[in-house]
């Protein structure tokens, strides 16, 4: 049988790493002084395992809400005799770490002789003296009071990259305007890769100091000028150049045929170019009637874009997102970003997710339209990219909205047969992450709808407690969005249907019974019998089945009063009555609770005997059988004209005859029968 999409099992290394991180005190560590986490003395971890532990730890922190971060985790790697991280800090990747202050820059200088790769993307506060916490804290570090970003006014003027002689890759995306990039970077002699996304450059000539070395230059959202272009084309060893923008709407610079030609002619080593978001002049492309001829080709000589006809070979990557050029037929590149087709859209999500969520958001929205209106032909890739975006940008509302909407269509019945258990579990995890992080209506609705695409409770059982807690939290507010309320109650009902009793008992302790009764009470106040009302009673019927504790909760939370009020308010709702009476039958099966049901007020409300009649054949539960017979005996004795016809109509006579035949029936029961 062919493997389904995403069916490759996790490696043993990955499984063991996750297990150790979830059970640090039972595997590698012990509880030290003041609850500090300490590495066991007999543990030695080579660099490969250290790297895996750190990377997996960070992934769990960002993507698994059930994972508890350890405050002293990174101090486990402070002793080079047992771990190999601190001494050999070669790569450091920090993004959007807004709590870091200039003290962290001072800490970085401790590693200036070893650092080869450094990313400080979006860490704008690190260049200010006030506020924040240091990158690495010593025991005697003085704690600063928490300060707002607005209070971080004092610019750090003493720091530059003097002494960082091994630094080859540097990402300073989002560097504050007050920081002079030229002064900061001047000491670096050996840069191979530089990212200055969203940086305001006062001058550009300083870039030529790396013209013999620089292989990658990213100037995303940097205002282009004739001067900057002239400087860039001098960097003749560039293999990757990114001069893209977020959108054409903010661009004053026009990308001409002359500029593109200069880039191609001068930068002969280019394999990757991104010019997304630029206004393209019409003279860049061949006439439509010419370029539409023949099958699409990536050969430069056939390029529909004139300047690219001079390429010696097709580019590995070409960014054309939010440009008119992505719509032409012949594009000389193996991978193209754009919005013309599914492949271009997926390439855009892949290329822009990590550092450009504003573009990834738009591309995911286009994927949503493809999955909804057309057909997604690269299902596995699409799902993996959307999952990655949702994990990477857990706190980005726009990504969560579009990503959760796309997941709804990518997991529906049309695509379901191609998806593995592991892949679908990944989807469930990111959906629950979104539900935990956002109480916003659209995200909640999208996430709940996506969960409806799964077999419930089977596919959600591995996250059973978590998903129930989230749904109950959604239903807590006094007035919730009607559609979300309806979907959430439906999911709650499905989750407590056909599951083990210990699951039902656990959910009952979370407040399930009380939440459902609160919903019923609100609907009674509105005098509305809708799906929420029916689902709530159905959920109570399911969760009280063979679970005495939940039955007791129902009675304790004024359940019987609401039962009577519903019967009085909605006398003609037969489906509602079926659910309500089914619940009452569950309560009646609990011997200790029967006295609370044997009052004339409760007994005389029955508009069907079905819940009582189904207890009669229960030879294994003579007590339930006795209560049911007693209830019928009282009803037909006190109100014969009303209840004798109903007893005959619903087949009660034959069931009572069986009670008389059963050896297990008690003599008192037979007398009443």
UniProtKB/TrEMBL annotation:
- How is this protein annotated for GO cellular component? Cul2-RING ubiquitin ligase complex
Entry-linked Pfam families: LRR_Zer-1, ZER1-like_2nd
Query: What are the Protein zer-1 homolog-like C-terminal domain coordinates in residue numbering?
Result: 390-606
Query: Which residue intervals define the domain Zer-1-like leucine-rich repeats region in the entry?
Result: 183-323
Keywords on this record? Leucine-rich repeat, Ubl conjugation pathway
Checking SMART domains in the record gives:
ARM
* InterPro entries associated with the record: ARM-like (IPR011989), ARM-type_fold (IPR016024), Armadillo (IPR000225), LRR_dom_sf (IPR032675), LRR_Zer-1 (IPR056845), ZER1-like_C (IPR055142), Zyg-11_UBL_adapter (IPR051341)
Q: Which domain of life is it from?
A: Eukaryota
Signal peptide (from-to): none
Q: Which PANTHER family match?
A: PROTEIN ZER-1 HOMOLOG (PTHR12904:SF23), PTHR12904
Q: Which family does it belong to?
A: Belongs to the zyg-11 family.
Q: What is this protein called?
A: Protein zer-1 homolog
Can you name the source organism? Lates japonicus
